[in-house]
Amino acid sequence: MKTKTSLWDAAEHLKTRDDMAAYMAGALEEGDVSLIAAALGDIARAQGMTKIARKTGLGRESLYKTLSREGNPELETVLRVCDAVGLKLKAVPG
């Protein structure tokens, strides 16, 4: 008997702002820049990349590329996307 598998997509499981905030917090805690970019991309896809592109004034295709594991978003892009998806980055003592 064959086992059927499918790709797991985090964006499909990010339903609430609390889900998204916890997901982003986990990525930030890891400290892996590519993971942080990808997590922000997952959150943007969960809310609709076209909508986020409109809110940020950035191109949808470039957001897909930039907010992936291979992407390297500038801080300005990260902050614009965070604002568009309703998240804020905070500094806390370490």
Tell me the number of structural domains: 1
* Distinct helical segment count: 5
Please give the number of β-strands: 0
Q: What is the 3D form?
A: globular
What is the averaged pLDDT score? 95
Kindly report how far apart the N and C termini lie. 51 Å
Estimate the strand proportion: under 5%
Helix content: 55-70%
Q: Indicate the low-confidence ranges by residue numbers.
A: none
Query: Which class best fits the helix and strand makeup?
Result: mainly alpha
Description of the molecule:
The protein is mostly helical and 94 residues long. The chain has one domain. The protein is 59% helix and 0% strand. α1 packs antiparallel against α2 and α2 packs parallel to α5. The longest helix has 15 residues.
Describe this protein with a few key phrases.
mainly alpha, 94 residues, 0% strand, single chain
Give a quick precis of the structure.
By secondary structure, the chain is mostly helical. It has 5 helices and no strands. The longest helix has 15 residues.
Architecture blueprint of SSEs:
Layout: H1 17-30, H2 33-47, H3 49-56, H4 60-66, H5 75-85
Helix pairs in contact: 1-2, 2-5, 3-5
